[in-house]
Design brief:
about 375 residues; mainly alpha; Growth Hormone, Chain: A; 17 helices; about 80% helix
């Protein structure tokens, strides 16, 4: 099996690849009101594009994992990125809600096809605690994307129309495509194992499935926040579009710091035990947010507590993925696609439910976030 001789280069390349997702989701958040006005639709119709992205991204990962096991990680990543780049340029020219939905779905599907290979490549090379460290290293770089994405999006719409955001995404993905083409080596050995049998092995492994579902629900709570962040900060508290990216970005900053700290944690504790603690902290933060919203909504208190709820994902992500993938030495591509599909399908469905919440209050939003964290904790009890 071929591996890279440069650990840092591998981490940076996979981080660039993985960053495509948060950039695609977060960069256009400040522009949602502008898109709604431009297309003459209610903002809830634009919020729906997040769920479309998540579900289509999940389907893309479903195909991407199986194809990468059979034909190679790098080849499928490059094909997916090529289509992703074209879809972004198509979104730049979108002039109707229908076109926005269609090209957004293609963008997400091809992104899933490409990005599912990132975690699979890590699993090809690293195992156990080393894998958890590698995932955390990639995440600490990747998380810079959602921190700067809303600010970059807000800057773009201050001077240009909203569709320039997708032009930027197209150029970024083209850059990543070229970087991977010339610098990334193949890490997996193509296999002709039967895909359906491999999926059956993954989906019937109860221990792994418990961790996958737990990770997915912990992940979903963040997307409720992402989908409703414009309402929480801009509509409810009257925050300006210029200040919004900073309030949004502080959540990601805490996530980055905890991701870096997690590298030290896995040297002393088992990843699965760290995961349990992280999910409990997230659930507690969700309950506190609900209490604050119900009693005396306060921008500072909610922002600080939200940084705990979202930031703790810096600990949850790496340990959850590493623990789940550890069960599948020969089916890492398919196992990773199952993780991605489960994550984004559950997140897409919950995001769809969140988009149906039309309320002037914050409490229902935070209660929903608390429930997803509770489900994550309960999923850890699934055992063989």
């Amino acid at each position: 099996m071929k591996t890279t001789n440069n650990y840092t280069l591998l981490i940076v390349l996979l981080a660039l690849l993985t960053s495509v997702t948060p950039l695609s989701i977060d960069m256009y958040l400040p522009s949602m009101p502008d898109i709604a006005r431009s297309l003459h639709v209610d903002i809830s119709k634009i919020e729906m594009t997040i769920s479309i992205f998540l579900i289509s991204f999940a389907i893309g990962q479903l195909f991407g994992g199986a194809l990468s096991d059979r034909y190679g990680r790098k080849k499928i990543a490059l094909i997916g990125l090529s289509i992703f780049t074209l879809a972004n340029f198509a979104l730049y020219f979108s002039a109707s809600l229908q076109e926005l939905y269609i090209f957004r779905a293609i963008q997400a599907f091809s992104g899933g096809l490409a990005i599912v290979n990132s975690s699979a490549m890590v699993r090809d090379i690293f195992h156990g605690k080393e894998a958890a460290k590698a995932f955390s290293s990639i995440a600490s770089i990747t998380m810079l994307a959602p921190m700067i994405a809303p600010s970059l999006g807000a800057l773009i719409i201050s001077y240009f129309e909203w569709n320039i955001i997708f032009l930027f995404l197209g150029l970024y993905s083209l850059f990543v495509l070229v970087a991977l083409l010339f610098n990334l080596v193949e890490t997996g050995t193509p296999t002709k194992s039967k895909v359906l049998e491999a999926y059956k092995r993954v989906l019937t492994h109860k221990d792994a499935l418990g961790f996958i579902i737990a990770l997915s629900f912990g992940f979903s709570g963040m997307f409720i926040f992402i989908e409703k962040s414009s309402f929480i900060y801009i509509s409810y508290f009257g925050v300006s579009k210029q200040l919004f990216p900073f309030l949004f970005g502080v959540n990601v900053l805490v996530m980055i710091l905890l991701t870096r700290y997690n590298i030290k944690l896995v040297e002393r504790y088992e990843p699965k035990n760290i995961l349990k603690v992280g999910l409990f902290i997230q659930f507690t933060a969700g309950m506190i947010l609900s209490l604050i919203a119900y009693t005396a909504p306060n921008l500072v208190a909610i922002t600080l507590t939200m940084t705990i709820y979202v930031g703790i994902l810096g600990i949850i992500f790496g340990n959850g993925i590493a623990t789940a993938l550890e069960y599948f030495k020969n089916d890492s591509g398919i196992a990773n696609s199952v993780i991605g599909v489960t994550e984004f399908t559950i997140a897409g469905f919950i995001g769809f439910l969140a988009s149906l919440i039309h309320t002037a209050e914050l409490t229902p939003i935070f209660i929903m976030m608390s429930i997803t964290s509770l489900f994550a904790l309960l999923a850890l009890r699934i055992k063989s």
